[in-house]
Amino acid sequence: MDKMTKSLPENSFRRLSLKMVQGVPLRKTTAENFEPIANFQARPDDLLIASYPKAGTTWILEIVDMIDNEGDVEKCKRAPTFVRFPFLEISPPPPVKPGVEEADNMPSPRRLKTHLPFHLVPKSFWEKNSKVIYVARNAKDNAVSYYYFDKLNQRQPEPGTWEEYLEKFMQGNVAWGSWYDHVKGFWEKKDQHQILYMFYEDMKENPEREVRKVMKFLEKNLPDHINSKIIQHTSFSAMKENPMANYSTMPPAFFDQSSISFMRKGEVGDWKNHFSADQNKVFEEDYKKKMAGSSLTFRTEI
Ligand code: PPS
Questions:
Q1: Residue 245 placed within a domain
Q2: Whose CA is nearest to atom 9 of ligand 1?
């Protein structure tokens, strides 16, 4: 057992059940400590990186850090992702501090992570007009990625078989709730706030263009050679090998990466290796109903 896990109470190492907060199933520890999260005080110069789990959050965080540090790779290797970017709603067992406390103690400008759906994001972010980058990924690849993540993440409910999991995903009966409500929630509000809405598929297709978008949003204009450095350092292969980005420093009692890696595949279209023809048919019919009336569209291949 490593130093971090040794100091934790033994009952920390178990899968958590989900508990509803305003209609959204969240990890029990988050749901039971939600007040300080809802009352979190944002600052005008905060940047909140928001997403449904497994949409490409870690990738965007690394891109933002590289932009902030103007392509200085060593500076970006100062600490693991989960230390560099406080995860707002996470309530780990003591002595590890809750995300909101980590964020409170951080000097500005802060870069913070959340998976909360729009209506659960602390109101102060909207009152302070803080910037938000939202990243979304097509539902099918997102579901596959989340299924594998729920196998490795020992703090999330057991995913069960792929068939069982897909059913739960479609019902929104997974941590952080419905993918459909999540992606639509931010989409509908994006023009009323400073929200940059990004797509995983666009980032895969043309990382140079997408990094430029993020730079513009952050009001930074870095030269081409720095952009190239950012793309290289934030490529899937580089991040998979980078211990400060691949969660290999997270104790195995939390993330068991012995058979599945956090940096698993990093592709668009992997769903084709998992969905049966029948599952695809049922999923698409249900998808049409749940996304009806929305102008939001996704690509499931590029
Ligand atoms: S988390 O736990 O919710 O914060 O996970 P998140 O970072 O949002 O999503 C993890 C998935 O993103 C893939 N990933 C990448 N893909 C392409 N390029 C880069 N650089 C990259 N970094 C992370 C990661 O592999 C997970 O997707 P899957 O499909 O499971 O491989």
A1: yes
A2: 54
Residue whose Cα lies nearest atom 23 of ligand 1: it is: 59
The answer to whether 53 touches 115, Cβ cutoff 8 Å, is: yes
CATH number, domain with residue 162 = 3.40.50.300
Structure tokens at 1: 């057992």
Residue 296 lies in a domain: no
Query: In what side-by-side order are the strands of the sheet with 195-199?
Result: 111-114, 47-51, 131-136, 195-199
C-alpha to C-alpha distance for 117 and 172, rounded to whole angstroms: 12
Q: What is the pLDDT of residue 75?
A: 98
Domain, as residue range, for 95 = 34-291
Question: How far apart are alpha carbons 13 and 254 in whole angstroms?
Answer: 7
Report the C-alpha gap between 126 and 130 in whole angstroms.
6
Query: How far, in Å, CA of 63 to CA of 66, rounded?
Result: 5
Summarised one tens digit per residue, pLDDT across range 61-96 is 999 999 999 999 999 999 999 999 999 999 988 878
The answer to whether 193 is a known catalytic residue is no
Given a cut of 50, the residues of the chain with pLDDT beneath it are 1, 10
Query: Is residue 297 one of the residues assigned to a domain?
Result: no
The answer to whether 62 touches 76, Cβ cutoff 8 Å, is yes
Burial of 208 (0-12, 13-18, 19+ CB in 10 A): exposed
Distance CA 23, CA 187 (A): 19
Mutation probe of ligand 1 site: the residue of 52, 58, 149, 211 with most atoms within 8 A of C-beta: 58
Q: What is the pLDDT, as a whole number, of residue 87?
A: 98
Q: Would you call 108 exposed, middle or buried from its count of C-beta atoms within 10 A (0-12, 13-18, 19+)?
A: exposed
Give pTM, 2 decimals: 0.96
Only one residue has tokens 């729920």, namely: 150
105 occurs within a structural domain: yes
Q: Please state the domain count of the chain.
A: 1
Handedness of CA 139, 144, 149, 155 (dihedral sign): positive
pLDDT of residue 1: 44
